[in-house]
Design goal:
Elements: E1 19-21, E2 25-27, H1 37-43, H2 51-54, H3 57-63, H4 65-68, E3 113-114, E4 126-127, E5 136-138, E6 143-147, E7 151-153, E8 158-164, H5 170-174, E9 176-181, E10 189-193, E11 199-202, E12 208-210, E13 213-218, E14 223-228, E15 232-235, E16 243-246, E17 257-262, E18 271-277, E19 280-282, E20 285-288, E21 296-297, E22 300-305, E23 310-314, E24 318-319, E25 328-330, E26 337-339, E27 342-348, E28 362-368, E29 376-378, E30 381-382, E31 388-394, E32 402-408, E33 412-417
Parallel strand pairs: 5-14, 7-15, 25-27
Antiparallel strand pairs: 1-2, 3-4, 6-8, 8-11, 9-10, 9-13, 12-15, 13-14, 16-17, 17-20, 18-22, 19-20, 21-24, 22-23, 26-33, 27-32, 28-31, 28-33, 29-30, 29-32
């Protein structure tokens, strides 16, 4: 079908407000999400060399700069050489101790090797060894692919998306065929031409991890690029109610952090495993060592069941303290130290026997001089808001460089009293 483009232009090159394609279909800008999708959709399946015959180049360059990159006359067009790399897949988050990591099968790209010549060749021919007449380029030089959503529920649509790289501009996408392979989906394979081929939508009957790949055939060069996609996780019976809590949100470096997952249930299925990311775990518990104060950890645990469901659970964030290198320390009773608003680690190193000779019972933590009613929080205890707020703490926790985390809603001066 011949596709027409009508461009209403003001004298100074302002582009028209709509494009008409084919049999009168109007493409509205808000129906397309990509920056250049409006023009690309209109020009789909057109040869790049015909662009100058269809619309003023200056207007096209304004609307879709990518569409004119590398668009020269057919006698001088050269296809960019892909660079070998193991590029980072944009569909996977950067690895860190507090993020869910989905492993993808990737491989280093191998660019086509061109025949050498002492003179410039505007139309280089890829050299390859194959019984096929089509040069096959393996890798991710032109882009990456993966699911729009890395985890979906059973029965939901999975949208596979190809994202082009800098070596694969818009005019090449317009003249390419995308063959998607999704072996265990409702549509195992599909070939889609032009810009629309960057998306393939399927469903999966079985839960679990599913792989896909896309083969991009570039008509102008005859090259084929094979790309493995980041896998998608299709969950079966849902896992709900999980909580991952820290034993201490301000652990000393001598102790380290520890977390426990509780409350997980899965109707019609059985919880079968726990995979920890950012901590060393065995079953529903995990630990993380620290080497100095102010180190942070917030692991993720992937809880799985026997219906191929994987549910990521975010754990509490903890920050290490060091009783041997305190920011705030008290060594005598009735001596005030100024603490800031928020949480602070206070190290207590009072002498043995300071509390009447016995190291048992309780003593008082008092905070005042806050300029208003202040509330103290230590662990699960909180004082009443008062100009001189108090909490009882065990005497044994005031000696031997014991560390406590003190929370204040106002900056105040604090002391240990009998």
């Amino acid at each position: 079908m011949n596709k027409k483009i009508y461009a209403g232009m003001i004298t100074f090159g302002v582009a028209a407000s709509f494009w008409a394609c084919g049999s009168g279909e109007i493409l509205k800008p808000d129906e397309l999400t990509d920056k250049n999708a409006l023009v690309i959709a209109a020009l789909e399946d057109q040869e790049p060399t015909k662009l100058t015959e269809m619309v003023n180049l200056r207007v096209l360059d304004t609307l879709c700069p990518d569409c004119l990159k590398g668009t020269a006359s057919s006698s001088s067009r050269a296809i960019p050489t892909p660079r070998s790399s193991s590029s980072r897949n944009p569909f996977v988050n950067s690895s860190s101790s507090s993020q869910l990591i989905i492993n993808s099968a990737t491989s280093s790209s191998t660019p086509p090797v061109y025949e050498s010549s002492s003179s410039y060749n505007p139309n280089p021919v890829p050299v390859y060894s194959s019984s096929s007449s089509t040069p096959v380029v393996v890798g991710e030089d032109i882009g990456t692919c993966g699911p729009e959503t890395p985890t979906v529920e059973s029965g939901a649509k999975v949208i596979w998306v190809f994202k082009n790289g800098k070596d694969f501009p818009g005019n090449m996408m317009l003249n390419s065929d995308f063959t998607w392979t999704t072996s265990d989906a409702n549509v195992p394979t599909a070939t889609i031409g032009g810009y629309k081929g960057r998306i393939d939508t399927v469903t999966y009957a079985a839960s679990g991890k599913h792989n896909a790949s896309v083969s991009v055939f570039v008509k102008t060069s005859g090259a084929t690029y094979n790309i493995s996609c980041t896998p998608v996780q299709v969950n079966g019976a849902p896992i709900t109610g999980c909580k991952c809590t820290a034993a201490d949100k301000k652990p000393d470096v001598s102790v380290g952090g520890s977390w426990t997952v509780t409350g997980c249930t899965s109707a019609g299925a059985e919880i079968t495993g726990y995979e920890w990311l950012g901590a060393v775990g065995d079953g529903p518990t995990a630990t993380q060592a620290f080497t100095k104060k102010n180190q942070m950890a917030a692991p993720v645990v992937n809880v799985s069941n026997n219906d191929n469901t994987v549910q990521p659970v975010q754990c509490d964030e903890v920050v290490s303290v060091d009783a041997t290198d305190p920011d705030y320390i008290l060594t005598e009773q009735n001596t005030k130290i100024e603490l800031p608003k928020g949480e602070s680690t206070l190290v207590l190193d009072l002498p043995s026997g300071w509390h009447g000779g016995a190291n048992t019972g309780t003593c008082t933590l008092r905070c005042d001089d806050a300029g208003g009613p202040v509330t103290i929080t230590v662990g699960t205890q909180s004082s009443k808001a008062d100009y001189s707020a108090t909490l009882s703490i065990p005497v044994e926790n005031t000696m031997n460089k014991s560390a406590i985390v003190v929370g204040l809603d106002l900056a105040a001066k604090c002391q240990i009293a009998y």
